[in-house]
UniProtKB/TrEMBL annotation:
UniProtKB keywords: Protein biosynthesis, Translation regulation
Record PANTHER family: EUKARYOTIC TRANSLATION INITIATION FACTOR SUI1
Role according to the record: Probably involved in translation.
Gene3D superfamilies for this protein: SUI1-like domain (3.30.780.10)
SUPFAM superfamilies: eIF1-like
Gene Ontology molecular functions: mRNA binding; translation initiation factor activity
Record-level GO BP terms: regulation of translation
All residue ranges annotated as the SUI1 domain in the record: 30-100
Pfam families: SUI1
Name by which UniProt lists this protein: SUI1 domain-containing protein
Family affiliation: Belongs to the SUI1 family.
Phylogenetic classification of the source organism: Eukaryota, Viridiplantae, Streptophyta, Embryophyta, Tracheophyta
PROSITE patterns linked to this entry: SUI1
Species for this entry: Liquidambar formosana
Top-level taxon of origin: Eukaryota
Length: 112
């Protein structure tokens, strides 16, 4: 008889890499992720910006520039995370580089 190993798929967690970090805001990378919501709906999350930045002001500029809604969520493990409606990964990365908040090599884009 042949022994077969069963691999049971688990739920996808887009924040698994971020949970490995020691403290939020200390790593050099800004993680931009996308999550699937209902049907075609998507949610873009921005995590890893420096702590001294005003997340509310950055969110206000995002919302005005991209014509979308969003909010700032306080996570126990990850710190403050900006959430935006829709797939805004490219827009957010371009905005952060043009505004001079981060360098292009500091941005990691995750998603499908």
């Amino acid at each position: 008889m042949v022994d077969l190993e069963l691999v049971i798929p688990t739920a996808f967690d887009p924040f698994t890499e971020a949970k490995d970090s020691v403290a939020f805001g200390t790593k050099d990378y800004v993680h931009i992720r996308i999550q699937q919501r209902n049907g075609k709906k998507k949610l873009t999350t921005v995590q890893g910006l420096k702590i001294e930045f005003s997340y509310e002001k950055i969110l206000k500029d995002f919302k005005k520039e991209f014509c979308c809604n969003g909010n700032v969520v306080q996570d126990k493990e990850l710190g403050k995370v900006i959430q935006l409606q829709g797939d805004q990964r490219k827009n957010v990365s371009n905005f952060l580089v043009q505004a001079g908040l981060v360098r292009k090599e500091q941005i990691k884009i995750h998603g499908f």
